[in-house]
DNA sequence: TTATATCATAGTATTTTACTCGGTTTTTGT
DNA sequence: ACAAAAACCGAGTAAAATACTATGATATAA
């Protein structure tokens, strides 16, 4: 399947949503996120390292340490998270920053603008949703379903 | 990369464009397509088998046989081709026909509608281009660039 | 000083991709 | 009838990507 979120994107988004639900509560240890989301802690470490280097989360080392979102939930889009974890959205090689060098016949390519439109439409959708939107959605779910389940 | 056309989609689209350029000339042998497009003949056989089973091309067996588009170029969209070769566009498992069975908490899922919008926007873009559009585009290129190169 | 954390890197099993290989069957032209 | 040209078919395989595991070092609060 050519459009398929890997576990990097899925787990990373779930971890970020977990942090969004606890925004303002101080640093959240990774262990607790991994347990709640049922993800291998070691693997999640690697993913959150990517998010940290991209500036989406801040870390506090040592005991009582953990992670927090570096901006408010409504300031972080799903696109920010997915692009960082899954890499740039490029259906074909030549849409990458470096990739255009490899392609000598850009100017006469019949399909390039198709892939550009695909890329842009995906980006637009993902950037139209923030973690804040997801929280709101989740809260509405909670009100409706008293059994208190919200999933991602 | 989570949005990445595989060679199946790329080669298949190139083969279909090759057939579109020769539409009306009778059956085109696969060997000639493979040579022009510089694709392994055996591999392309497997891809065109998928296109044939999906009804996008017709085959004529025996000597002087080959393949033809089963509809006019402007009736076949890029989406038709890509969906057949790369499988259904489903960023997450639960958007597949069978996949929803696996997911118990569809009703309370915070992200499902994001992935549905992603899927639909990709589909819309791909369905807005036909092989006929690509031929027109290619012909304009030919007029501008006298050196007669058109690529895909 | 100890427990709790983050941080870092190397290794590995599984899955997917991108083919290759070795044929059989069908049809046309001589 | 026969040879050549072509579609059709299924199994096997090398390389790459994915999804982890393993083993530690470093930092900080209590």
Task: Tally the structural domains of chain A.
Answer: 1
Gross geometry of chain A: elongated
Number of helices of chain A: 6
* Oligomer description: homodimer
Q: What is the mean pLDDT of chain A?
A: 90
Provide the β-strand percentage band of chain A. Answer: 5-15%
- Derived structural class of chain A: mainly alpha
Largest sheet of chain A: 2 strands, antiparallel
Which regions of chain A contain 5 or more consecutive residues with pLDDT less than 50? none
N- to C-terminal separation of chain A? Answer: 21 Å
CATH superfamily name of chain A?
Winged helix-like DNA-binding domain superfamily/Winged helix DNA-binding domain
Label the CATH architecture of chain A: Orthogonal Bundle
The radius of gyration over CA of chain A amounts to: 18 Å
Q: Can you give the helix content of chain A as a percent range?
A: 40-55%
Written overview of the protein:
The structure is a homodimer of 152-residue chains. Chain A is built from six helices and two strands. Chain A has a two-stranded antiparallel sheet with strand order 1-2. The longest helix of chain A has 16 residues, at 112-127. Chain A has a single domain (7-146), classed as Orthogonal Bundle (Arc Repressor Mutant, subunit A), CATH 1.10.10. By secondary structure, chain A is mainly alpha-helical. The two termini of chain A are 21 Å apart. The interface between A and B is large, with 45 and 45 residues. The structure holds a DNA duplex (30 and 30 nucleotides).
